[in-house]
Predict the 3D structure of the following.
Amino acid sequence: MDISGLYHLYTRHPHIVTDSRRTVKDSIFFGLRGERFNGSLFAGKALENASCYAVVDDPKVVEDERYILVEDSLLTLQELSAYHRDRLSIPIIAITGSNGKTTTKELTAEILSPQYMVKATSGNLNNHIGVPLTLLEMDSATEVGIVEMGANHPGEIALLCRLARPDYGLITNIGQAHLEGFGNMEGVKKAKGELYKHLGESGGLIFCNGGDRVLQEMLAGINAGVSYYGESEDAVCSGEILSADPFLTLRLSFRDMETVEEMEVNTQLVGGYNLENILAAVAIGLHFRIRTDDIRNALEGWSTENNRSQRVETGKNVLIMDAYNANPSSMMAALENFSLQDHPRKVLVLGDMLELGENEIRAHREILEHILEMDCGEVFLVGPVFSALQVPGNIMVFPSVDKLDHWLGRHPLADRLILLKGSRGIGLERLKHRL
């Protein structure tokens, strides 16, 4: 079956699933391969549950006409999503960056939603599988698409751009993330810059932080329109932090030709580093002609989830849950914000930062040196990398979350302000029940 034939089936059964346990009516199951599993082996189960068809790349599982045999299920999924994108006459906004892309994506969707039917990436399904699934969830009712793009190797953003063909793009920042795959900061810039390159070649529009020197340099030679935000004479919006304890209160300025409008916004976001994410989303909203009052309402009504800069009052302690991801840039920003919080009993619970490659030990040592300069009563470090460092005796180190969880069971903490920050693979969110 060629891609046009498969697309005809998709229009009749417009739900794509890749997990046989989560099939829905009128769905098509794609049996994808992983390092340790063959998704095609679950096709029969998917068809038993609710799927109408199963796309597989293992001929041994084919039993009847409901099985669609292809050479590579993943490539077919990507090709189907690109074919669908070609038939969507809507603007698509791509968002990537080392830090803040998920928050920026969610804020952008919140700001645009009062005026448009928006479909945005669910959670952080931002890779070579998640982006095709996001595109295939867009339908005739969708008016604007927002696609988050993640990458940990060169060429991945370029691939996602070929699939999604974004008309607009935003790089939140360039930081020390996924250095294991990119090699160094120049590798990060080149990989994230694949979005700028695509927009330059397609005549798209770039939203750029006018106060970020690295992003400014990356625009050199890119033949695309640019809309600036932040610290720039040409910025459509800028902002300053009025208060950050506990949530951000901002003064936002909007520039329309020679007119400047200002307003105060009380957000439910924690961390001064989120100002850049907010301004990026606001700049996109202004381009799409969202009224400033609607922008304020969106910013004040939105609260983060998924352990991203999330303030949680447990009844015993106040937690700042930032345990979804971590790299040296975001870790330092979180620590600097935490140092500004006013509380008599502050606690740090920090987990290892993953995927840093040969920079791993140096990066963790620099974080440790910064911690020693902070005024923080109790510090707990979790993970094999932190455990390998020479740590002063007043800091407690645990090789795993389970070990710290056991310790906390015998030494409970109360009446503390606690920052939990680490890479998702460390699993600091599992400590929430103890704290």
Remarks:
- The chain has a mean pLDDT of 90.
- Residues 88-301 form a domain with the UDP-N-acetylmuramoyl-L-alanine:D-glutamate ligase fold (CATH 3.40.1190.10).
- The chain has three domains: 3-71, 88-301, 310-431.
- The first strand starts at residue 15 and ends at 17.
